[in-house]
Design brief:
This protein is mainly alpha-helical and about 375 residues long. It has 14 helices and no strands.
Length: about 375
């Protein structure tokens, strides 16, 4: 097995997680803001059976339902977000690949740490340049593949009435504004939060290896909420609670942790450079690290003030009150309940459809940019 082929297995789990992140924002905003029905709509909704499937299953209605799903994704710019996520995936792979190559090259005799890092950076630059070129060439097909997978699951779990509510909402002024600002606000909040969490996550990693206690997480205390009154913060918090924003976003983070664990442990087990005792030690440390991430960081609690800060800057009081009214409707809550299962199956679907194609492009990038000797089976 070649060194580089092994290394790409170590970073592959980031592909699916990053692609899913591009639709998590849509999931949150869609589920939370789905209700724009009239009284007549509500009477129609009552005909939906308790299992969550629509009582209307004729071919014409099903065709209209699929068309509405396509409209929703067009109105929310999902294709563009998925395309952007492909580039974000490349950025994640680049960072992990340069670290992995540096570690691998440093094992060679008479190679200094600086020389290993320089060589790893140069090789990674060549690989990633080609990888990004291949992504650009195949972008349209990859976007369609990802969107088709998510569309299919959405169609499976949401009724015609629920899809119609969502589509109607995104045609409204509030819906159009939310489609633009909620993903940007959520993404910005998560980015700032992750930067604030990085030092504490590093301490958790040290604790998993050395046992040195990391202490409690206090990242939420670093948020600047100046300029947002206590009353306004309370209204935004109510909106977030009704819409389950922080709950859904924190669950998506936990999914990423689980996916990482599922990929990293087999990779350690296959590492030919480690003996059985070293593998056992690394797996034990990684499991401890994953456990600490889940138990020490209350992601919903940490996320909330960051989201409040972003929403407070980007939405007016009228926007907040309108969204609270939407969220309080019981039909919106019905849609929200279904999203965790939709997201779980979306992760699985993306893993089966899009990730193998990206993996193939990464393999091609390695084969086309690295010397033939690098690819020889050891």
């Amino acid at each position: 097995m070649s060194i580089l082929i092994d290394l790409k297995k170590a970073i592959s789990f980031g592909i699916t997680a990053t692609l899913l992140a591009s639709v998590v924002g849509l999931a949150v905003e869609t589920a939370s803001l789905a209700q724009t029905s009239t009284s007549a709509d509500k009477e129609t909704q009552k005909s939906t059976d308790s299992s969550g499937s629509s009582s209307t299953t004729d071919p014409a209605t099903e065709a209209k339902k699929r068309a509405l799903i396509s409209d929703i994704y067009a109105d929310t710019g999902t294709s563009e977000r998925i395309a952007n996520s492909l580039q974000e995936t490349a950025n994640i792979i680049e960072k992990r690949l340069v670290r992995a190559l540096t570690n691998e090259y440093s094992k060679e005799p008479k190679v200094s740490p600086d020389a290993a890092a320089a060589r790893a950076t140069a090789d990674t630059t060549k690989i990633m340049k080609r990888f990004r070129e291949l992504i650009a060439q195949h972008q349209s097909d990859l976007v369609v593949e990802a969107q088709t997978a998510f569309n299919k699951i959405t169609d499976q779990y949401l009724t015609f009435e629920e899809i119609n509510y969502i589509a109607t909402f995104y045609k409204s002024p509030t819906g159009k504004k939310s489609a633009l600002l909620i993903p940007k606000s959520s993404q910005s909040a998560v980015l700032v939060m992750r930067q604030a969490l990085d030092p504490y996550v590093a301490k958790l990693k040290d604790e998993s290896i050395t046992g040195q206690p990391a202490g409690p997480c206090t990242a939420e205390a670093n948020v600047d909420l100046q300029g947002i009154s206590a009353e306004r913060q309370a209204r935004i918090k109510k909106m977030l609670e009704l819409g389950r924003f922080t709950k859904l976003m924190s669950e998506s983070v936990k999914v990423e942790i689980d996916q990482a664990s599922a990929a990293v442990i087999p990779m350690i087990e296959r590492d030919p450079s480690l003996n059985s005792d070293e593998k056992a030690e690394k797996i034990k440390a990684f499991k401890k690290f994953s456990e600490l991430l889940s138990s020490r960081i209350d992601f919903a609690k940490v996320m909330e003030p960051y989201i409040i800060a972003e929403f407070g800057r980007n939405f007016t009081d009228e926007d907040i009150e309108n969204m609270i009214a939407y969220y309080e409707d019981p039909h919106s809550q019905t849609v929200l309940v279904k999203w965790p299962q939709i997201l779980s199956e979306a992760m699985s679907a993306l893993n089966q459809s899009v990730e193998p194609k990206l993996q193939k492009l990464l393999d091609e990038s390695i084969a086309q940019t690295m010397p033939p000797a690098t690819h020889k089976t050891q």
